[in-house]
Amino acid sequence: MTYHPKSDFMAVMMERGFLADCTDYQALDEAFSKGVVPAYIGYDATAKSLHVGHLMNIMVLRWLQKCGGKPITLMGGGTTKVGDPSFRSDERPLLDDAAIDANIDGMQQVFAKYLTYGNGDTDAVMLNNAEWLDDLNYLSFLRDIGRHFSVNRMLSFESVKSRLDREQSLSFLEFNYMILQAYDFLELNRRYGCLLQMGGSDQWGNIVNGIDLTRRVLDHEIYGLTTPLLTTSDGRKMGKSQGGAIWLNGDMLSPYEFWQFWRNTTDADTGKFLKIFTELPVAECDRLGALEGSEINAAKILLANEVTTLLHGAKAAKTAEATAREVFEKGGVGGDLPTLTLSADEVGDGVSIVQLFVKSGLAGSGKEAKRLIAENGAKLNDEALSEASLMVDAAMLAEPIKLSAGKKRHALVKLG
Which of 86, 135, 145, 355 would be 159's cystine partner, CB 3.0–4.6 Å? Predict the structure, then answer.
């Protein structure tokens, strides 16, 4: 891309690898050069926590605020009742109002770590699309908004087309989702002067819909910007691990496990992740990412410390690094390791080692735990574990025991 941006925000988006596409680079850059640009990203409240897959766009909102824009975190209190069908093979489970509100509360805790909320020009605001969606009159909505949408065009969007091509059911409820998301942009522009919607590149069709609708109804010029869908160098979707989602709420994933996720970054991804997930200067990220051999491990530790500090604070990052050193370099137990606490009743006459690997999160299933043991990837108190039939009783748990899956994943098990 040869375009040279004038505004700080667009420069950051381009040089740090945040930009996949934009509806009008030059006009959006001009808008950022002239004043405060309110911009939003939408989040449906489908879980109690955001996960690492959301972190790239949270960093985009953080940079937006640092560069003088106004971030809007739009919570999908209304759209969560419908469910986004984009690139899914099945319908999302529908949640009631209480579950949606609880999920929004959990997600809000994460946003507060990255953004400054308040009443100032560039302070972030959190909005809920239930504000305008809950009380819509169906017939009025069809007449005033529905008439602007072509079903032929909606069927051509990749997110819908891929579902139909596989002959998987797409309910009328889900089909409405893209109309509601487009209406969100219209209402945010009308009520709050929002000029920009951002999101992952899989949201391009939904974003363009909102821009078209707002032009037709209000005759306002607004913009869309997408970030690339991030995959690791081995082709996996960012945010997934063998143990499941990498949650951002500390009560769903410990700061140590979060730190360890980043420490385990592959060599090839280190430079890219430093640019996207930290605020270190780009030149320094490039220098660190180019290191080789044992030197790149120092870059990975810096990555883990920087990312963990942003989310959980400097003290949590320092403690996680100290625990990792104790575990790996000194063969110790490490007081900050994920801990499974069992009651005497749960232990009873004994609990199988396979169950302990599953309950501690080191294995996703009994089958996976047995395979880990059979392939010599499991350890008990740093000693190779070869017997999947081993039973652990209360006497063995007089002191906490340490379980290991491979060289990098560990957990403690103790009696409560």
Answer: 86
Task: Report how many domains make up the chain.
Answer: 3
Last residue of a domain, one of 278, 300, 328: 328
Q: Are residues 266 and 392 in the same domain?
A: no
Contacts of 298 (CB under 8 A, 6+ apart): 291
Residues 273 and 309 in one domain: yes
Residue with the two structure tokens 């009696």? 415
CA distance 110 to 118: 16
Kindly tell me the burial class for residue 250, based on how many C-beta atoms sit within 10 Å of its own C-beta (0-12, 13-18, 19 or more). Answer: middle
Q: Tell me the pLDDT band of 227, cut-offs 50, 70 and 90.
A: very high
Specify the CATH number for the domain of residue 137.
Answer: 3.40.50.620
In this structure, what CATH number is given to the domain that contains residue 296?
Answer: 1.10.240.10
Mean pLDDT computed over every residue of the chain: 89
70: three-class secondary structure by DSSP: strand
Report the alpha-carbon distance of residue 5 to residue 2 in Å, rounded.
10
| Max Cα distance, the chain (Å) | 74
Provide mean pLDDT across the span 109-124. Answer: 97
The per-residue pLDDT for 162 is 77
Amino acid (one-letter) located at 245: A
Q: How far is CA 340 from CA 52, 353, 369, in A?
A: 23, 13, 16
CA–centroid distance for 351 within its chain: 35
Q: Which two tokens stand for residue 169?
A: 């059911």
Q: Which two tokens stand for residue 144?
A: 């005033």
Residue position matching structure tokens 């609990």: 351
Claim to verify: residue 284 and residue 408 sit in the same structural domain: no
